[in-house]
Structure formats: C-alpha cells, structure tokens
Amino acid sequence: MLIPVFVILVFPVIFIAMWLFIIGVFAWLGGWQTLASTYRAPEKDGRTGRTMFTVTMGRFSFPRVHYRGVLQVAYSNDVMTLWPNVLFRFRHPALSLPKSEMIVRDRKGWLRRYAEVRMKAHPKIRIHMPIHHFHWSDMIAPEA
Questions:
Q1: I need a surface site. Which of 40, 76, 137, 138 has the fewest CB within 10 A?
Q2: Which CATH architecture has domain 2-139?
C-alpha cells in the first residue's frame, strides 16, 4: 500500500517540474526571454486581447516554437502587446513591442502568406503570424 501512496504524492511534483522545464526551454528556443530582456511589459491584470492561433517564434529556422492558441495580442497606437495564457506564463512575461522598433516583411509559406516581425534590438528572433493578425498592415514590406 505504500507504493501507490508514494506514486500519488510524487507524480504531481514530477509532472509540474517537467512542465516548467519544457516551458522554460520553449521560452529560450523561441527567443521570448531575449525579447523580454528589452521589451518586457509592465505587469497588469485584466488585459483583454485577441487570441492568436498560428504564431511561431524562433531564433533559428528550426526548431521554431509554435504558440497555437496560447497567445493573446492587443494593439494600442504604437505598441503591440503579447502575452500567453496562465498555463504558459513561466519564463514568458508579457511583451510590449513598440511599432517604431519593428521590421515587418511579407513572407510566403507553403499554404499562406504571413507577416514576419523582427525587432531592431534582436533581429535574429522572428515572429511569424498571419497577416490578418497584424494590425498595422501599412508597415508590411513586400517580400524581397
């Protein structure tokens, strides 16, 4: 009887530790931690935004981190704010990405076109999102 009780007590601890480790690796691979070092948003509860279902981030071409349905976006006059839902917030603070710091390109994928957003302070990190999710369509430069 001791083993099942031990397993019941230890499993949640191991599961939570693995979850936090994986989320931390995603934050590093996707470049979220690097962007947060420069563009961290002030902590604020009650943000409202639009859920983005097909966003990828990465500092490399492969592997890229796919944030499918876990990111929210809100736009103000000159800032795009990104934040994940509560289960993915470990090592993923909210980001305030100023419009003046963005380099945006129109890119063509296998099935659709997308906006590639790079920040001037960290140009190796690319954020890919559908063009209809990007609020400032006048900023999108044509594909080179």
A1: 138
A2: Roll (2.30)
